[in-house]
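Dear Dr. L.,

I hope this message finds you well. Following up on our conversation about the binding site, I have prepared a predicted three-dimensional model of the protein together with zinc ion. For your records, I am including the exact sequence and ligand specification that went into the calculation, followed by the C-alpha cells. Please feel free to forward this to your student if that is useful.
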Amino acid sequence: MDFNEIVNQYKDKMLEDLKGLLSIESVRGESKPDAPVGDGPKEALMYMLSLGERDGMDTKVVDNLAGHIELGSGEDLFGILGHVDVVPAGTGWDTDPYEPVIKDDVIYARGVQDDKGPTIAAYYAMKILNDLKVPLKQRVRLIIGTDEESDWLCTDAYFKKEEMPNFGFAPDAEFPVIHGEKGITSFDLVFESDTKAYGDVVLNRFTSGERYNMVPESATANITVDDADKLKQSFDAFLEEMKLTGDFIKNEDTVDLIVHGKSAHGSTPLEGKNAGLELLRFLKIISIDQRAFEFLSFYDHYIRDNFDGQQFKMDFKHEEMGETSVNTGIIRYDLNGKSYFGVNLRYPLGMDFKAAIDKLSKEVEAHKIAVENISDQVPHYVEKNSPLVKVLTDTYKNYVEDDTEPFTIGGGTYARVLENGVAYGAMFKDTKDTMHQANEQMPVDELVLATTIYLEALHKILVEEALVE
Ligand SMILES: [Zn+2]
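The resulting structure of the complex is given below.
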C-alpha cells in the first residue's frame, strides 16, 4: 500500500480540520464545575471528539478533562496520547496566533507543533485506517488530554477511570523514538538554625532562582558590612578570578552583591552557569556571621559542585540513560524567613530514590537541615530492542534517511503516562523547534509525512500484528 499517496488525498481535509482546532484558544483558564481547566481546553477536546463522531468512530469524555476516540474491536488496546491545550501566545507574533495561516507551505498558529498538528496527524492515521475498512485485530484509541501544559489533571482523571493501553506512543516530541526518560524529583533542603547573626559582615538575605527546573541566571546577596570598600575589593577580585560578571550596589545601610550566570534547563545544569552557586562560593571565602557560616558549610558539603549527585550519594549511572543530574534551581536565605535550597534532581533507572533520600534526610540533620516538599516521578523506560521501539523506528526509517538511534532524555514527555509508551515524533531531525515560542509553525509536508508514518505504524501494529509475539 502506498501510504504516502493515500495520506496526500486527505491533505486538504486534514488542513481544514487542523485549522478548526488551531482557532480555539485552548489556554488553561478559570476552573468551572463543568470545565475544570477552563472553557478553551474543553472546547478543543469537544472539537476533536466531534471529528471522531463525524467520521464514525466511538468517543468518550472523561470529567471534561480528557477523552478518547476509539476504533476497532478485540481485547488488546493500542494507545496514542496527544494534547489539545496550549501555552499562552505571548508576544512577538507576525500573525494572529489563533487565526492559522499557511504561508509558503508552512502553517503558523499557537499549538501547531505542540501538540495540535501531531494530534491531528495521529487522528488522520486512524481515520484513514477506518476508511480503508481493513480488519483490525485490536483496538486503537486516540486519548486526548487538555492539561498537559500545566498539571496533567487530564491524564490523572482519565486513567482513574479508563484502561491502560497495552502499548502506545505520544506524538508530542521528536522522531525517531524516545524510549526512556529519567526520574524527576524535586525537594527542599530547609535550614533550621536558631544561631544568632552578628559580626562585621552579616548576611541578611540571599535570593537566586524562581523555578526548580531552570538554572538561575542571577543571584543577589544583601549584606550589612562595616568596611564596604574592603568587601568590594574582594568581590571584584573574585569576579575576575572566576571570570564572572556582577554588580556591587551600595544602599543606605547595606550592600547588594549580584552575580550574573547563564540560564539553562534543569535537566542539563552544566550547560548553564548557576549564579547562586557562584555567589555562595564567594561568601564561603570571606569571614561572615556564624549563622550564615552554618548555611554555607552545608552548601560546601552538599551543594557546591554537586552536579552529578555525588554529594547526596545519589550519583548513579545507567548505560543508556546516563548519569544523575542535579540542578539547585532555588536558593533562599533570610534572617527572618525561610532559608532553603530547592533542588531538582534527575536520576536514571536502577537508583532507589526513596532509600537515598531517607538516608540523606538523616545525614543532614546534623547540619540543621530538614528535607521537605519531596516530589518524585519515577524513571520511564521501554526496552530499546522491544518490538514496539523496533516497529516505530523501522517505520520512520522507511521515510527518512536518518541514522539516529532511539534515545533517552533527562526531561519528561507525555509518554511517561503510558505504561508501555514511548514518544514518537512529530518533529523531524531538521525541524525548527518553535514550541512555546512566537510564530509557532509546522511545514505542511511534515504534517503529511508524520501522518504517513503514523498510518504505516498503525497498519503494522493493528493489521499485521507486529507486536504480537
Ligand atoms: Zn506538548
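In brief: The mean pLDDT is 95.

With kind regards,
A. P.
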